[in-house]
Structure prediction request, 472 residues.
Amino acid sequence: MTAVVDLLLTRYNYVAVVLLLGIGVYMIGASENLVKKVIGMNVFQTGIFLFFMTSAFVTGGHVPIIKEGVERYVSPLPHVLILTAIVVGVSLTAVALALIVRIYAEYGTLQEDVLREIQTDE
Amino acid sequence: MSDARRSPYVESTIIMTTVRVIAPFVMTYGLFVMFHGAKSPGGGFQGGAIVGALVLMLAFAFGADPTREWVNQRVVVGLLVVGVATFVGIGLATMALRGSFLEYAVIAGAKSSKYAIELIELGIGAIVSGVITSLFFLIDAGFDVEADAADAGGETPEETPGEPSSGEVGS
Amino acid sequence: MAPTPVEAGLLVVILGSALATAVLRDVLGSIIAFSAYSLGVAMLWVVLRAPDVGLTEAAVGAGVMTILLLLTIAKTVRPSEDRVLASFDPKTLVLVAAFVLALGATVPALPAVGSPDAPVVSSEVSQYYLDHAYKDTGVENVVTAVLAAYRGFDTLGEAVVVFTAGVAVVAVLKREVTA
Prediction:
């Protein structure tokens, strides 16, 4: 029991990462609606971002903008990676949503089970 | 473009007035973030996202179609092209000056790399704001089944002259 | 290092709103919860000393993404629901539980949050950027320096990916942005 409490107290962000990834996977797997699957994909993605940002963080670290007299900064490299990943992520989400709009125009539904039925009928 | 589906837009005086008041400030802030990326948190991705969000905010308040008319679409596409061209152009320019790709130090002048980086950030800002704006308008325009059917029939529909993707549609 | 009250509060908000996006049956409710989630995440980035990322997340996640999602359900269909909560999928839940346990087993091996000995923080690469960025480029913001100078080629690739996404949407919806 103390091990779990210790884990929550020292590695809280990583625990949150694991939970967010779990919620994301559940939404992708269990949601019947395609829009909700896309939201789940984004939750999963943000979980990975949190992992990167936590790895860059150091207690008492300063924002990585060079200033006289500051000794310790947080690592700038993960910030750069995630910064570009966020913008690429929204672009990919837009492509996914465009596909959803197209699927709706063709089949008239966004429910996965109904889509599967239509496909087996064809 | 007239879609069969009605626009979900609802006119609201409160939203319109609020957006009208804060829009110039959001624009200024977005440009500040873009220009001031060297000294403070900010840069092309951040500023571009803010400016892109501003256009979406305007569409939210005044409706997508009036905003589409107000924001010249040629300017949006131009922004994208100028952004990518700036980035690649600076890279090639440093190569022409016998440096490596994007090796800013070979450009003559004091603080040349800082100004080259600022220019690149502006290019990134142009790409990001342009893409966000055009993605929004594209998804808003939606998919037109009848136009596609006419397209697949082999005849180019009159409303989209010179459509780029007609080649892959085939028959 | 125990979490500060701000961090703990933000994590609770983030996990709560993520859970709400998953369990709410109505897609509109899910989108609103996702918007709140993004805002919480953006604030967490600021707490983790990453204002650059926080700015982008607030504009993109809470702003652009929400509007694009809302636009999609306005363009398509929003199934009307009587129930508030989504139906439960036990099969997926078992799978997810296994996934979470497998990932969770690796957590004790990770360094404590904020530890100065963590591999990323103490790595040579991070230190090199912090030591040389200002001298090499004249830019105080190391994130900008790494983005545009040290990893400039990578950033060019990212910009082209974003550009390509625009082209892909044109191809999927077969529509040109016309004047």
Observations:
- The CA atoms of residues 64 and 140 of chain B lie 7 Å apart.
- The two ends of chain B are 24 Å apart (CA to CA).
- Chain B touches chain A at residues 39-41, 43, 45-46, 48-49, 128, 131-132, 135, 138-139, 142-145 (CB under 8 Å).
- The first helix of chain B runs from residue 13 to 35.
